[in-house]
Design brief:
The protein is of the alpha+beta class and 320 residues long. Helices cover 48% and strands 14% of the residues. The longest helix has 26 residues. The radius of gyration is 25 Å and the shape is globular.
Length: 320
């Protein structure tokens, strides 16, 4: 059984592109995945768009896989849902993290990438500490020279070059020439890494071929028409990149299919399938289209019938 966890629980990345970074875990439920709307976002191809979640509540900590493509592991064992204790190694796809907490009196720094020997060196000599602080103050108070006209012209030229690479990358992406698009967008990112459009198109171009394959598979699953096919299509939706045309296309097909299946099962008084389908329809619907009265009424009726069913979890996506 998991031990009681204090307020200082955190995940420390070990190896890979995030090596040494520390992620504090607030109480509650934290989603993990490749999509930017997760609580813990890792732009790594081994992660699914919605990969897993970390649960800190009721005095324990657990990790739950959300049907990811490459799995979630605790101490090398693939899990569906499992408890996690300090010292355990949690792996999402190919990314490893060590769980740390303060219940053992740990004094490890939570600053990313600071080795333990550095911490001891800082604590070892008051003179060295004073010198470091003095240098930091000098650095902070020194004036930054203003950008001269020539500097502004150079920045304008760089931004213009970045915009040209972005436009070329978007055009190639629309033509499904994903490697060429990614190359153009990488050049744009090197010139203007703060540009939100560059970051967005660079991410979806990196997964363009994968998204197209997922869309094709999901479309085939939708043709089956039963719950198993819909569940498969919904899983593929979770693997497709946010903001990609493939995701929009699949969502536009999947939502009415869920409503149709839900209406049929509601009419047959199959309340579990009815509530499941209507809840999924709410999850897929755009933010400005979540007020469908027919879907809301059917879901409310089904949940009323299921209120005493021990295995049913009420829909969180439905409007209040």
């Amino acid at each position: 059984m998991p031990v009681t966890h204090g307020a200082g629980m955190r995940l420390v990345a070990e190896g890979g592109p995030y090596d040494g970074r520390v992620y504090s875990l607030a109480p509650g439920i934290l989603s993990v995945g490749r999509a930017v709307d997760n609580d813990l976002v890792y732009d790594d191809p081994s992660l699914s768009r919605r990969h897993a979640r970390v649960i800190r509540e009721a005095g324990k900590m657990e990790v739950e896989d959300l049907g990811s493509s490459n799995g979630t592991y605790v101490n090398g064992r693939k899990i569906g849902r499992a408890g996690v204790n300090p010292g355990d190694i949690v792996r999402f796809g190919d990314l490893n993290f060590r769980c740390e907490g303060n219940e053992y009196g740990s004094t490890r720094s939570v600053e990313p990438g600071m080795p333990r020997l550095h911490l001891y060196a800082l604590l070892g000599g008051a003179g060295a500490t004073f010198l470091i602080l003095l240098l930091a103050v000098i650095f902070l108070v020194r004036k930054v020279p203003p950008v001269q006209a020539s500097g502004r012209d150079a920045i304008a030229r760089i931004n213009k070059q970045a915009d040209a690479h972005l436009a070329a990358g978007k055009k190639l992406y629309g033509e499904r020439k994903y490697p060429e698009a990614k190359a153009e967008l990488d050049l744009a990112y090197e010139l203007d890494p703060a540009n939100a459009d560059v970051r967005h198109y660079r991410q979806i171009a990196a997964h363009g071929a994968e998204d197209d394959r997922a869309l094709a598979s999901a479309t085939g699953a939708l043709g089956i028409g039963d719950r198993k096919g819909l569940e498969s299509a919904f899983k593929f939706l979770g693997d497709i990149s946010d903001g990609s045309p493939a995701r929009v296309t699949l969502a536009n097909k999947l939502e009415p299919a869920m409503v149709h299946f839900g209406s049929d099962t509601c009419a047959r008084r199959d309340w579990l399938d009815c509530a499941w389908a209507m809840c999924k329809a709410f999850e897929i619907a755009p933010a400005d289209a979540k007020g469908n009265p027919q879907v809301a009424r059917s879901l409310k009726d089904a949940e009323h019938k299921l209120k005493r069913a021990p295995s049913y979890v009420p829909c969180r996506a439905a409007p209040p």
